[in-house]
Amino acid sequence: MIILGIESTCDETAAALVEDGRHLLSNVISTSVKEQALYGGVVPEIASRRHCEFISATVKKALLDAGKTIDDVDAVAVTFAPGLIGAVLVGVNFAKGLAYSAGKPLVPVHHLRGHIAALYLTHPELKPPFLCLVASGGHSHIVEVQDYTHYHILGHTVDDAAGEAFDKVARTLGLPYPGGPSVAAAAKTGDTKAYRLPVPHVEGKYNVSFSGLKTAVLNEVNKAQMKGEEVNVPDLAASFQERIAGILAEKLLLAAADTGAKQVCLAGGVAANGRLRQLVNDGAQKLGAKVYLPELKFCGDNGAMIAAQGYYQYIAGHTAGLELNGLPTLPI
Ligand code: KG4
Ligand code: ZN
């Protein structure tokens, strides 16, 4: 079964064809990230306008790259929530029009379910149940994936998402957007012990909080400025990355130990972080759990993950009519 997946929740306009939820046929991503970087973050209006410009050619190329036409597609899957609403609506309305005109079923997909399904593309042998940390620009959830369409959230951030913390810290340090890759790059030559950053206290055993950590980085910058000095950017980036990756890995592994999870996974944009991947790998091995990490190209937003999850939503009977609407927020 071939599913066309369409994604437009943030600054990536993406489309892909995936067979049976596991086999990638094509994967096309158009992005406004360079333009967004001029403003230090995503400007929703710019994202929406670029989606309108890019979406038709992006979907066409996804079909072309796979050597298929819309007639070969069994269903059109689209991210309908959560995300920047103006951006989400571009994908949803395009998918509605395409599904209607081609006479294909329309399958709504939750963005975080999509991030989790990116794992199926990298690891065809992976099957639920498994434990997954989904960390992106908008979310940080520790999720028990019970089966392909059932989830139980064990923990979440009580304030900033992990990716958001990377983006804000990057801005504080004068590093470019998106913050995750630029903080990670700066951290390469830094000393992780140079700055003593706090471990924020948070209610809830598996919850995380990054707002205090972000403020602690800002305080270091302000403290240095008051002394007429400058912070050492690689050192502060390394200290921050070590702390945030440490907190995320610790909470995931704590949840894995408590629940006896045999399979531990990462998903979402922040899953591209090398230090986080290393800590989870090492820790899970000690627990005797198998680790599954998404290929780097499937960590950030893409259409393939939506097509992969779209397959599982479709075979579970979750289709929608033309009344489908986009939503800015929605629990997984
Ligand atoms: O999943 P994603 O592409 O979009 C959302 O759903 O939000 O995640 C984007 C987030 C951004 O905040 C970005 O800074 C972060 O993922 N990110 C990283 C890395 N690459 C991207 N964070 C840490 N380390 C990275 N290497
Ligand atoms: Zn995402």
Q: What kind of sheet is the major sheet? A: 5 strands, mixed
Terminal CA distance: 25 Å
Quick check: average pLDDT?
A: 97
User: Ranges with pLDDT <50 over ≥5 residues?
Assistant: none
Instruction: Indicate the radius of gyration in whole angstroms.
Output: 20 Å
CATH fold annotation of the largest domain? Nucleotidyltransferase, domain 5
How much strand content do the residues show? 15-25%
- Count of discrete domains: 2
Total count of helical runs of at least 4 residues: 10
CATH homologous superfamily placement of the largest domain: ATPase, nucleotide binding domain
Describe the structure.
It catalyses: L-threonylcarbamoyladenylate + adenosine(37) in tRNA = N(6)-L-threonylcarbamoyladenosine(37) in tRNA + AMP + H(+). Substrate binds at residues 134-138, 167, 180, 273. It holds the Pfam family TsaD. With 332 residues, the protein is α/β, with parallel strands linked by helices. It has 2 domains: 2-117 and 300-315, ATPase, nucleotide binding domain (Nucleotidyltransferase, domain 5, 2-Layer Sandwich), CATH 3.30.420; 128-297, 2-Layer Sandwich (Nucleotidyltransferase, domain 5), CATH 3.30.420. The chain has helices at 33-37, 44-65, 85-102, 111-122, 162-172, 179-187, 211-226, 233-259, 274-287, 303-315; strands at residues 2-7, 12-19, 23-31, 75-81, 106-110, 130-135, 140-147, 150-156, 263-267, 290-292. A hairpin with a 3-residue loop joins β2 and β3 (23-31). α4 (111-122) crosses α10 (303-315). The structure holds 5'-O-[(R)-(carboxyoxy)(hydroxy)phosphoryl]adenosine (KG4) and zinc ion (ZN). Zinc ion binds at residues 111, 115, 136, 268-269, 301.
